[in-house]
Design a protein that fits this description.
This protein is of the alpha+beta class. It has helices spanning 3-7, 11-43, 58-67, 74-80, 94-105, 156-168, 178-207; strands at 50-55, 85-91, 110-117, 130-139, 144-155. The protein has one domain: Beta Polymerase, domain 2, CATH 3.30.460. It contains seven helices and five strands; from the N terminus they run ααβααβαβββαα. Strand 4 (130-139) and strand 5 (144-155) form a beta hairpin. The structure holds ligand 0O2.
Length: 208
C-alpha cells in the first residue's frame, strides 16, 4: 500500500508532524553539542562521550500504536507516542549520566515530563539506561511549539550491552533460548560491574 493511501486525508498532517520531530532532534543535537563544547572549554572534560539521534520508523510507530490500541491518527500520535524523536547520550562513567540529568533539569527550553531510571531499576532483560520523556522548545518562524522526544542516557558499557542484546533478543524475544537469556542478564551485570570499577578508578585518580 502506498504511504499516501495508508494515511488518507491526514497525509499532510502526518508529514507536518514528522517535520516537527525532525526539528526537535536538530534542536536537541545542537544544544547538546554546545553544552559538550562548553564543558570541554571550561572544565577540560565533558560528561558527553557521544550523541546519537534517530527517528522512529513508520512501521515501528504503527506497531506501537496498534499494541497500545491507539487510534491511528496524528492527534493520538502526538499525545501518546513520546519516542518518535529519539536522542541517545552516551557517557564514559555512570556519574556522568546524572550530571547530564542535573544540567538538563536547569534548562528552560526543555520540560522533563517523565524520568525512567532503568539503572536504579533495571528491566528484567538486564537493560540499564536513564530515559527521559521531554518536551523540547522549537522556534518556528511565527510561533513556538513544544515537541515530545525521548532522551536515553547511558554509559558506553550499557550501550555496548544494549546494542548487542538488541540484535540478539529485543525484537525477537521468542527466538532466544532461556539459557541465553540468563547469560545476557549475567552479561548486563558484568557491564554494570565494569561501570562500578571504572567509576572507582576515576575517583581514586581524581583524589591524587
Ligand atoms: P527503538 O528502535 O529504540 O525505537 P512506553 O512508551 O513507556 O509505554 P516503551 O516505549 O516500551 O513503552 O518504553 P521503554 O521500555 O521505557 O523504552 C523503550 C526503548 O528502550 C526501546 O525502544 C529501546 O530503545 C530501549 N529498551 C527497552 N528495553 C530494552 C531491552 O530490554 N533491551 C534493549 N536493547 N533495549 C531496550 P524501541 O521502541 O523498542 O526500539
Amino acid at each position: 500500500m502506498e504511504i499516501e493511501e495508508f494515511f488518507g486525508d491526514q497525509f499532510h498532517q502526518w508529514r507536518e508532524c514528522f517535520r516537527y520531530y525532525e526539528m526537535a532532534i536538530t534542536e536537541l543535537e545542537s544544544d547538546l553539542g554546545i553544552i559538550d563544547l562548553d564543558w570541554q572549554t571550561r572544565l577540560g572534560y565533558s560528561p558527553i562521550e557521544h550523541v546519537k539521534t534517530r527517528m522512529k520508523t513508520l512501521p515501528s510507530i504503527v506497531r506501537k500504536m496498534k499494541r497500545k490500541e491507539l487510534p491511528l491518527d496524528v492527534e493520538s500520535l502526538w499525545e501518546n507516542v513520546h519516542d518518535v524523536a529519539g536522542i541517545r547520550i552516551v557517557t564514559s562513567f555512570r556519574d556522568d549520566i546524572y550530571a547530564i540529568l542535573r544540567h538538563l533539569e536547569t534548562r528552560d527550553d526543555l520540560k522533563i515530563e517523565v524520568v525512567k531510571d532503568y539503572i536504579e531499576h533495571p528491566k528484567p532483560s538486564g537493560y540499564r539506561s536513564l530515559h527521559l520523556i521531554v518536551k523540547t522548545k522549537v522556534y518556528l518562524a511565527e510561533r513556538i511549539i513544544w515537541v515530545p522526544a525521548e532522551i536515553q542516557i547511558r554509559t558506553l558499557a550499557m550501550d555496548f550491552w544494549a546494542a548487542t542484546e538488541h540484535k540478539l533478543q529485543y525484537k525477537y524475544q521468542h527466538d532466544v533460548p532461556s539459557e541465553s537469556r540468563e547469560e545476557l542478564i549475567e552479561a548486563a551485570r558484568m557491564a554494570d560491574a565494569l561501570d562500578t570499577q571504572m567509576g572507582r578508578i576515576r575517583h581514586e585518580i581524581l583524589k591524587t
